[in-house]
Amino acid sequence: MKIHALVLGAFLFLNFFSCTAQSSSALATARIIDLSIGFQKTEILVVYENGESESIPLKNIAPSDLKNIHEIDLNALLLENQKTITNFLNKMDQKGYRIEEMDYSVNNGHFSFIIFRKI
90: which of 6, 15, 27, 56 is 20 to 30 A away, CA to CA? Predict the structure, then answer.
Protein backbone atom coordinates (compact mmCIF):
# COMPACT_ATOMS: atom_id res chain seq x y z
CA MET A 1 0.00 0.00 0.00
CA LYS A 2 2.86 2.38 0.86
CA ILE A 3 4.50 1.67 -2.49
CA HIS A 4 1.30 2.58 -4.35
CA ALA A 5 1.03 5.82 -2.39
CA LEU A 6 4.71 6.65 -3.11
CA VAL A 7 4.33 5.90 -6.82
CA LEU A 8 1.12 7.94 -7.01
CA GLY A 9 2.74 10.79 -5.07
CA ALA A 10 5.80 10.77 -7.33
CA PHE A 11 3.60 10.72 -10.44
CA LEU A 12 1.51 13.67 -9.22
CA PHE A 13 4.64 15.59 -8.20
CA LEU A 14 6.30 15.11 -11.61
CA ASN A 15 3.07 15.81 -13.46
CA PHE A 16 2.57 19.05 -11.52
CA PHE A 17 6.07 20.32 -12.40
CA SER A 18 5.72 19.20 -15.99
CA CYS A 19 2.45 21.15 -16.35
CA THR A 20 3.89 24.18 -14.55
CA ALA A 21 6.96 24.23 -16.80
CA GLN A 22 4.85 23.77 -19.90
CA SER A 23 2.42 26.53 -19.01
CA SER A 24 5.26 29.03 -18.58
CA SER A 25 6.44 28.51 -22.16
CA ALA A 26 5.87 31.17 -24.79
CA LEU A 27 3.18 30.79 -27.46
CA ALA A 28 3.07 31.79 -31.10
CA THR A 29 0.11 31.51 -33.45
CA ALA A 30 -0.22 31.13 -37.19
CA ARG A 31 -3.19 31.47 -39.49
CA ILE A 32 -2.80 29.87 -42.90
CA ILE A 33 -5.17 31.24 -45.52
CA ASP A 34 -4.82 29.13 -48.67
CA LEU A 35 -7.50 30.09 -51.16
CA SER A 36 -5.57 29.31 -54.37
CA ILE A 37 -8.35 30.93 -56.40
CA GLY A 38 -10.00 34.03 -55.10
CA PHE A 39 -10.21 37.66 -54.24
CA GLN A 40 -8.68 37.45 -50.78
CA LYS A 41 -4.95 37.51 -50.06
CA THR A 42 -3.45 34.03 -49.61
CA GLU A 43 -0.80 33.98 -46.89
CA ILE A 44 0.53 32.70 -43.59
CA LEU A 45 0.08 35.22 -40.76
CA VAL A 46 2.32 34.62 -37.74
CA VAL A 47 2.26 36.34 -34.33
CA TYR A 48 5.07 35.61 -31.87
CA GLU A 49 4.97 35.81 -28.08
CA ASN A 50 6.79 39.17 -28.08
CA GLY A 51 4.12 40.77 -30.29
CA GLU A 52 6.17 40.67 -33.47
CA SER A 53 4.36 39.41 -36.54
CA GLU A 54 5.09 38.46 -40.09
CA SER A 55 3.22 37.66 -43.27
CA ILE A 56 4.47 34.93 -45.59
CA PRO A 57 2.83 35.17 -49.03
CA LEU A 58 1.38 32.15 -50.77
CA LYS A 59 0.55 31.94 -54.47
CA ASN A 60 -2.98 32.26 -55.74
CA ILE A 61 -4.78 32.81 -59.01
CA ALA A 62 -5.95 36.37 -59.43
CA PRO A 63 -9.58 36.83 -60.43
CA SER A 64 -8.41 38.52 -63.65
CA ASP A 65 -6.65 35.26 -64.60
CA LEU A 66 -9.79 33.15 -64.26
CA LYS A 67 -10.66 33.66 -67.94
CA ASN A 68 -7.42 31.75 -68.75
CA ILE A 69 -7.85 29.13 -66.02
CA HIS A 70 -7.31 26.28 -68.50
CA GLU A 71 -3.75 27.58 -69.06
CA ILE A 72 -2.84 27.56 -65.38
CA ASP A 73 -1.24 24.52 -63.75
CA LEU A 74 -3.23 24.43 -60.52
CA ASN A 75 -1.34 21.38 -59.23
CA ALA A 76 1.98 23.24 -59.55
CA LEU A 77 0.51 26.20 -57.66
CA LEU A 78 -0.80 23.95 -54.86
CA LEU A 79 2.55 22.16 -54.66
CA GLU A 80 4.43 25.46 -54.41
CA ASN A 81 2.14 26.56 -51.56
CA GLN A 82 2.61 23.23 -49.81
CA LYS A 83 6.39 23.63 -50.03
CA THR A 84 6.13 27.15 -48.55
CA ILE A 85 3.98 25.86 -45.67
CA THR A 86 6.40 22.98 -45.04
CA ASN A 87 9.35 25.40 -44.99
CA PHE A 88 7.47 27.60 -42.51
CA LEU A 89 6.75 24.64 -40.20
CA ASN A 90 10.39 23.53 -40.37
CA LYS A 91 11.58 27.06 -39.49
CA MET A 92 9.24 27.15 -36.50
CA ASP A 93 10.67 23.81 -35.40
CA GLN A 94 14.23 25.14 -35.78
CA LYS A 95 13.27 28.14 -33.61
CA GLY A 96 12.19 25.71 -30.88
CA TYR A 97 8.41 25.80 -31.41
CA ARG A 98 6.22 22.70 -31.38
CA ILE A 99 2.63 22.46 -32.58
CA GLU A 100 0.38 22.32 -29.56
CA GLU A 101 -3.00 22.62 -31.21
CA MET A 102 -4.39 22.99 -34.71
CA ASP A 103 -7.77 23.79 -36.21
CA TYR A 104 -8.64 23.39 -39.87
CA SER A 105 -11.66 24.29 -41.98
CA VAL A 106 -12.59 24.20 -45.62
CA ASN A 107 -15.01 26.79 -46.94
CA ASN A 108 -14.15 28.11 -50.40
CA GLY A 109 -10.52 27.61 -49.39
CA HIS A 110 -8.35 26.06 -46.70
CA PHE A 111 -8.04 27.84 -43.38
CA SER A 112 -5.74 26.58 -40.63
CA PHE A 113 -5.04 28.04 -37.20
CA ILE A 114 -1.99 26.69 -35.36
CA ILE A 115 -0.86 27.29 -31.79
CA PHE A 116 2.86 26.74 -31.25
CA ARG A 117 4.55 26.38 -27.86
CA LYS A 118 8.21 27.31 -27.51
CA ILE A 119 10.14 24.61 -25.74
Answer: 15
Structural domain tally of the chain?
A: 1
Domain-embedded: residue 1: no
Residue 41 domain boundaries: 26-118
Q: Evaluate whether residue 75 is within a structural domain.
A: yes
| Cβ count near 119 (within 10 Å) | 11
For the four alpha carbons of 46, 29, 91 and 50, in that order, the dihedral sign comes to positive
Q: Tens-digit pLDDT profile for the chain (119 aa)?
A: 444 444 444 444 445 444 444 554 799 999 999 876 666 789 999 999 999 999 999 988 776 666 676 777 778 888 999 999 999 999 999 999 999 999 988 877 789 999 999 99
Q: In terms of Cα–Cα distance, which of 90, 105, 94 is closest to 34?
A: 105
Assess if residue 4 is contained within a domain.
Answer: no
* Domain-embedded: residue 2: no
Model pTM above 0.90: no
CA gap 94, 89 in Å, rounded:
9
